[in-house]
Amino acid sequence: MIPTETWNEVIKNIEGGLTQKDSCDLAGIHVDSLMKRMRRDSIFSKRIKKANIEFKKTHVNKIAKDDAWQSSAWLLERKFKDEFGKLSDIDPQTLDLKEFAEVLKGNYSHE
């Protein structure tokens, strides 16, 4: 059984921007343990999702307020490519016609 403190460390690291794998590695557990816990515990899964959202929020707010916003934009583009990636990173051949229309309108988010 993995202690609560270990899970809290994983969540804190994800909130800080680390990948799930890196967060698990630092906490000394395998990422498969995280995936299993997320599948069987919806509340825990929501905490992981919230940790990622908090990371996004931090950097979106920085971009909105800061003259030196480029580093945050770079992080968001790479960590959340589907939401913040460049339009050129989207392959139109993998989209259906409705999704492609949303890309052209600037409303597309592939989740």
* Residue share in helix: 55-70%
Give the overall silhouette.
globular
Mean pLDDT across every amino acid position: 82
Q: What's the end-to-end separation, in Å?
A: 32 Å
Instruction: Give the H and E element order.
Output: HHHHHHH
β-sheet strand percentage: under 5%
The whole-angstrom Rg is: 17 Å
Largest sheet: none
Number of domains: 2
3D structure, described in words:
The protein is mainly alpha-helical. The chain folds into two domains: 4-67; 80-111, no CATH class. Helix content is 69%, strand content 0%. The chain contains seven helices and no strands. It has helices at 4-15, 20-27, 31-40, 42-65, 70-79, 81-84, 97-105. It is globular. The model has no long low-confidence stretch (mean pLDDT 82).
Q: Gist?
A:
The chain has helices at 4-15, 20-27, 31-40, 42-65, 70-79, 81-84, 97-105. The chain has 111 residues and is mainly alpha-helical. It has two domains: 4-67; 80-111, no CATH class.
Name a few traits of the molecule.
0% strand; globular; 69% helix; 111 residues
List the helices and strands and how they pair.
Blueprint: H1 4-15, H2 20-27, H3 31-40, H4 42-65, H5 70-79, H6 81-84, H7 97-105
Helix pairs in contact: 1-2, 1-4, 3-4, 4-5
